[in-house]
Amino acid sequence: xxxxDKILRAAETNKTRTVLALDLEDTDVSRLxxxxxxxxxxxxxxxxxxxxxxxxxxALGLGxxxxxxxxxxxxxxxxxxxxAKLNDVGHTNRFMARTYFDMGFDAIIASPIAGWENGLxxxxxxxxxxxxxxxxxxxxxxxxxxxxxxxxxAHTDGHGKRVFEIxxxxxxxxxxxxxxxxxxxxxxxxxxxxxxxxNLPIYSPGVGAQGGDPGAAxxxxxxxxxxxxxxxxxxxxxxxxxxxxxxxxx
Length: 250
Ligand code: O7M
Description:
By secondary structure, this protein is of the alpha/beta class. It is built from 12 helices and 10 strands. It has an 8-stranded parallel β-barrel with strand order 1-2-3-4-5-8-9-10, surrounded by 9 helices. Strands 6-7 form a two-stranded antiparallel sheet.
C-alpha cells in the first residue's frame, strides 16, 4: 500500500487529521524509548501518522527507532514520516532517502530549495520506486519564516511571485505527496490551497504550543495537523489528542 493510501486509511478509520510529532527529549535512553512508546499507545486511535524528527534518531540511532518506534506504529496501522528536511545534492539525498525507507519509514520530508536536477530528483526517484511519499517544506510556522518564504522573487514567466508560491508550483510539478505550511499562517494556507488545487495534502505544524489555531488552519485548507508538545507534554495525552481530533470528512 502506498503512503497516501496508508495515511488516508488511518485518517478515515480513526476519524482524525492529526499527525503526532514524536519529539520527546530525555537524557536516559531507555526512558526516552518507553515514554515515546507510551505516547504512541495512548493516542494511536486518535492520530493518522507518526512524524519522527532527527533529534529522536540522534538520541536512539536508526536501528532502535525502527525496532521500538516504527514497528509499534505499524502494529497500529499508522504510517511513519521521517522529518529529515533533506536539502543536499543528489547522491547524498539518494543515500539518505534509501536508508530511511529501508528502515521502514513511509514518507520523507525534504526542502524544495535544493531544486530538482541533481538535488531532489533522486529522492523522488527512490520514493516512487517504493511507493513512498515525499512531503515538501513550503512555509515554516515560526515567526522568522516570513523573511524568506514571503519574499517577492522575479519568476521566469516575468511576474513577481512570493517564494512560497514558487515552492508550491514546484511541489505540484514534481508530484509531491504533500506540502508543509505552518498553521500559524492561515492566509498563506488559503493561497497555497488555491495554487495547489483541492487534492494535494497540506500538513500544518504549529498548532497549540506555537500558537496556531487548528480550526483556522483547517478552514483555510489544511488537510492534516502536525501536533507535538501539546499532546506528548500533556498529563493526559489521549485527552489532548481528542481535543485536536477533527474528522477528515464531516
Ligand atoms: O507541536 P510542536 O510545536 O511541539 O511541534 C511541531 C512539530 O512540527 C515539530 O516536530 C517541528 O519540527 C515541526 N515543524 C514545525 O514546527 N514548523 C515547521 O515549519 C515545520 C515543521 C515540520 O514538520 O517540518 C517538516
